[in-house]
């Protein structure tokens, strides 16, 4: 007798967004490591500060050693790590059905959390407790609770110049030999040698693949560099003020931007 198997359509998406804000008005905040803990609802993440969990301290955002505020938004199991020369900080936490708070909401919605081949799933199907999509798991129960939600965690961190931010999906750390520390260390090492964020991201992805990852692999790398002197802006200002523009850099100026005043060509450096 023919048999058919019907299961819910599973189309989920995890996401992590890091908004980098240059702080212009200094203000004092309480921090633990790089994480800002004032008024935080999401838990303070365990951070790897020279081998120990950092203590609570006061920091001035907008000061020379804390010029950037990072707004970190995550849902699902995409990840972000902040790497400094000596430390690394996990800026996100996966939304797993086995987390105590997540499990409570799931069970209140009438669903179950079970382990399938060592991976916790909602109703034996979905591995995330929060995600974009998966509407079958977002139907409200009789008490209004839903097994899955699309509410992200939002955390705040401070950063300084030359810090490295790495965004990556869970496929990067699928191999047992690749963890958050490996990702942070690889990114710092390759970037210090190449000064190339694209090559650095590629190296992290290749590491995961070569170590046996069979999941999708995505990596984005950003480094917070000191703002260089804006030669192009100075040339443009000189042109609009009627001054004779002076070349600030000896570069190949074959790429030019034509302005509308005096047929002046602005070199693009």
Automatic annotation (TrEMBL):
SMART domains from the UniProt entry: PP2Cc
Signal peptide: none
Molecular function (Gene Ontology), one example: protein serine/threonine phosphatase activity
UniProt protein name: Protein phosphatase 2C domain-containing protein
Stored InterPro entries: PP2C, PPM-type-like_dom_sf, PPM-type_phosphatase-like_dom
PPM-type phosphatase domain span: 1-224
Gene3D superfamilies assigned to the protein according to its UniProt record, in alphabetical order: PPM-type phosphatase domain
SUPFAM superfamilies registered for this protein in UniProt: PP2C-like
